[in-house]
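User: I've been trying to design a sequence by hand for this structure and keep getting stuck. Would you show me what you'd pick, starting by listing the structure so we're on the same page?

Assistant: Good idea, let's start from the same input. This is the structure you sent:
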C-alpha cells in the first residue's frame, strides 16, 4: 500500500511497554489503538479502532488487526517479530496486561494533526512556525541583508519577503562631507502583484531593470532603461512610514562635484505630485540645470515641508547660468491654483546665474501667488555677479507673497553687486531676526507699482551693503523696522563705500517706512560717517527713531525765515536765550517764547525773529 502517508509511530511515550507500577516488561500485554478521546472503557470496541499498519523495511505498509501483542522484552511484535507499527492519523492508546487489566490510557497520543501541520508548513506563514536559534525561519528570511540596491536586480522571490538593503551604492567609505556611506538603503518587501512599470528607483524597484551600481548608470536605471519585462508584475517596495521622501532614495550623492540633476528632479516631482514632505540630509546636492518647484503638479493647494539638517549643512545648488536658477512657481499662472501653506526649514539654496535672480518665488508677471508660507532657518545665496552690471542681479526675489513668516532667514549676495532681497507685492509678512548681506542693495522694494505693504522686520541684521533700504514703489505703505542693525560697508576694501546711504524712499504713502531704534556701524552708531538719506529720499515718506549719528546743527536762517525739518526724524530743537530774540514761530504760529525747547516733526517749520546777531540753537533727534 504505497498510496498512504503513514507517519505516526505506534509506541509507548517511554518507548518500551512496561507495567504501570514497575519496570517489568508488560509480557503478553495487549495494545489497542482507537480514535482520539475514546473513553477508556470503549477502547476494545472494534467500531472505535484506528487502522494500524506494519511498516516493512522497504517502506511498504501492510494493515494489521488489533490488539497488538507485547513480547517479553516489552516491544510490540507481529508474528513474534519486533516490528514498526504506524497509523495515518492521531489516536488514543490503551495498554492491558496479560490478565486484561488496563495499565495505561492516553486519550491523544500526539496532541497534533500531522496532516494539518504539513499544510500549515506549506502555507504562506509556514516559515513562522519553524524555530531557529532565538528567532524563526521567517524572521531570518525577512531580515536578509543585501549590500546595495542594485543587488535587487535579478532577485525575484516566488512570495512576499522582506529584505534589508544597506545602501544605495556599494561600499563603506567616508565621503567629502565627512558622512559615512552607506546611505539611501532601507527595508524592501517583494510584492508579486506590483506592476514593474511603476519602478522609480526610490519607492518601487523592478528586479528586471539592469544596473551595475555605478554612478554613471544611475540615471538610466532611474528612468527604467533596459527593463526586460515592461508589462510584467513583481517588484520591490520600500517600507517607508509617513508621507516623506528622502533625496538619497533616488541615488543622490552628498558631494557637490557629482551631478545630481536627475535625482533632484525625481525628488521634487515626488514631493509635489504626491503632496509629501521632502527631506534633504546633510550634503551639497548640485544640479547642472535649473531646479524648478512647479506647484501646478501638486494635487492640493499646499506645498508640504521641505527640510534638511541645517541651513549650511543641507544645500540644494544649481550651477545653471540661466536666470531664476531655483524657482518656486505655478506654471499655469492665473489659471492654476494658488500656492498655499508651504514650509521650508533648516535648508540652504545656492545658485550661480548670469542674469536675473538666483532664487525666486512666483512669476514675474505676478499671475501666481504664495500665501501662508513659513521659512525657518533658511539660507538663500548667490555666488556670482553679472559682469559690470551692479544692479541687475538678485540673490532672492519675492513676487506676490502674503501672510508669510521668515524666522532667522539669511540672504547672502555677491559683495558690492546687485540686490540681496527684492520684494514685489509682498504683503502682511513678518521677518524675525536673520540677516541680509554682501550686496550693493540690501532691501529693494521693487518697481513703481510693486504694492508692498504691511511688512514688519524685527532685529534684522544688514551688513556689507552700500544701500540699506531702497524703494521706488509708489504704493509702499506700513513697512516697519524694529531694532535693525545696518552696517554700510565694502567688504573687499573693509571700509565704508564711497557711494552709500542707509535709506532712500523715493515713492510711497506718507510715513510709508517706520524705523524704530536703529543701530548703525560696525562698532557703534556714531562711528558711521556716511549718508543716512539717499539723494532722492523723500523725508515725508519715513520716520526714523533710535540711534542716529551725531548730526551737525544747521545754520540759523535770517530773521523770520522758516527752516523745514528735512532730517526724516522727529527733532528736539533747543533755542538758546539771546538779547536780540523777540519771538519763535512753529509752522507760522507765534509761540510767544523767546527761547526754549521745541519738538519739530518731519516736514514742520521753525522760524526765529531777532535783531542783530542770530541766537544759537541745537538740534537732537528723538529716539
Amino acid at each position: 500500500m504505497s498510496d498512504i502517508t503513514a507517519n505516526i509511530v505506534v509506541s509507548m511515550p517511554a518507548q518500551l511497554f512496561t507495567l504501570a507500577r514497575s519496570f517489568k516488561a508488560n509480557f503478553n500485554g495487549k495494545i489497542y489503538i482507537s480514535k482520539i478521546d475514546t473513553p477508556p472503557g470503549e477502547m476494545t470496541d472494534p467500531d472505535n479502532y484506528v487502522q494500524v499498519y506494519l511498516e516493512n523495511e522497504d517502506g511498504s505498509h501492510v494493515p494489521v488487526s488489533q490488539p497488538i501483542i507485547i513480547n517479553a522484552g516489552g516491544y510490540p511484535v507481529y508474528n513474534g517479530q519486533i516490528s514498526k507499527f504506524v497509523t495515518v492519523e492521531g489516536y488514543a492508546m490503551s495498554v492491558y496486561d496479560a490478565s486484561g487489566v488496563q495499565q495505561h490510557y492516553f486519550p491523544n497520543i500526539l496532541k497534533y494533526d500531522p496532516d494539518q501541520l504539513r499544510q500549515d508548513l506549506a502555507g504562506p506563514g509556514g516559515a513562522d512556525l519553524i524555530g531557529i536559534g532565538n528567532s524563526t525561519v521567517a524572521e531570518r528570511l525577512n531580515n536578509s541583508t543585501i549590500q546595495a540596491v542594485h543587488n535587487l536586480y535579478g532577485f525575484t522571490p516566488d512570495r512576499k519577503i522582506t529584505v534589508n538593503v544597506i545602501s544605495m551604492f556599494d561600499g563603506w567609505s567616508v565621503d567629502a562631507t565627512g558622512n559615512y556611506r552607506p546611505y539611501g538603503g532601507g527595508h524592501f518587501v517583494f510584492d508579486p502583484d506590483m506592476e514593474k512599470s511603476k519602478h522609480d528607483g526610490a519607492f518601487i524597484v523592478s528586479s528586471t531593470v539592469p544596473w551595475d551600481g555605478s554612478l554613471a548608470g544611475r540615471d538610466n536605471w532611474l528612468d527604467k532603461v533596459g527593463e526586460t519585462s515592461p508589462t510584467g508584475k513583481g517588484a520591490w517596495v520600500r517600507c517607508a512610514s509617513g508621507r516623506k521622501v528622502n533625496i538619497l532614495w533616488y541615488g543622490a550623492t552628498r558631494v557637490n562635484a557629482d551631478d545630481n540633476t536627475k535625482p533632484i528632479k525625481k525628488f521634487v516631482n515626488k514631493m509635489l505630485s504626491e503632496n509629501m514632505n521632502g527631506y534633504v540630509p546633510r550634503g551639497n546636492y548640485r544640479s547642472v540645470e535649473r531646479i524648478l518647484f512647479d506647484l501646478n503638479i501638486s494635487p492640493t493647494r499646499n506645498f508640504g515641508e521641505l527640510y534638511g539638517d541645517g541651513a549650511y549643512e543641507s544645500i540644494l545648488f544649481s550651477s545653471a547660468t540661466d536666470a531664476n536658477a531655483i524657482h518656486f512657481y505655478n506654471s499655469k499662472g492665473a489659471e492654476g491654483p494658488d500656492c498655499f501653506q508651504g514650509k521650508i526649514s533648516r535648508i540652504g539654496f545656492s545658485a550661480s546665474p548670469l542674469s536675473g535672480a538666483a532664487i525666486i518665488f512666483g512669476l514675474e508677471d505676478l499671475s501666481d501667488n504664495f500665501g501662508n508660507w513659513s521659512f525657518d532657518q533658511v539660507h538663500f545665496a548667490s555666488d556670482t555677479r553679472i559682469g559690470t552690471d551692479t544692479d541687475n542681479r538678485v540673490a532672492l526675489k519675492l513676487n506676490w507673497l502674503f501672510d508669510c513668516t521668515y524666522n532667522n532667514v539669511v540672504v547672502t549676495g555677491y559683495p558690492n553687486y546687485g540686490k540681496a532681497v527684492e520684494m514685489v507685492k509682498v504683503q502682511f509678512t513678518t521677518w524675525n531676526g536673520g540677516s541680509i548681506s554682501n550686496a550693493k542693495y540690501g532691501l529693494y522694494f521693487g518697481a513703481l507699482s510693486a504694492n508692498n505693504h504691511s511688512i514688519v522686520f524685527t532685529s534684522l541684521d544688514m551688513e556689507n551693503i552700500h544701500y540699506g533700504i531702497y524703494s521706488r514703489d509708489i504704493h509702499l505703505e506700513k513697512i516697519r523696522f524694529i531694532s535693525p542693525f545696518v552696517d554700510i560697508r565694502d567688504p573687499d576694501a573693509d571700509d565704508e563705500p564711497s557711494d552709500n546711504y542707509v535709506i532712500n524712499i523715493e515713492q510711497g504713502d506718507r510715513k510709508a517706512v517706520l524705523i524704530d531704534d536703529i543701530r548703525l556701524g560696525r562698532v557703534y552708531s556714531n562711528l558711521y560717517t556716511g549718508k543716512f538719506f539717499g539723494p532722492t529720499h523723500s523725508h515725508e515718506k519715513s520716520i526714523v527713531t533710535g540711534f542716529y549719528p551725531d548730526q551737525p546743527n544747521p545754520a540759523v536762517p535770517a530773521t523770520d525765515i522758516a527752516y523745514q525739518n528735512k532730517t526724516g526724524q522727529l527733532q528736539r530743537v533747543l533755542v538758546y536765550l539771546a538779547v536780540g530774540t523777540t519771538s519763535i514761530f512753529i509752522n507760522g504760529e507765534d509761540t510767544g517764547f523767546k527761547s526754549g525747547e521745541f519738538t519739530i516733526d518731519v516736514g514742520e517749520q521753525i522760524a526765529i525773529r531777532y535783531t542783530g546777531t542770530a541766537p544759537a540753537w541745537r538740534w537732537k533727534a528723538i529716539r
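That's my pick for every position. To get oriented when you compare it with your attempt: DSSP finds four helices and 47 strands in the chain. Residues 563-621 form one domain.
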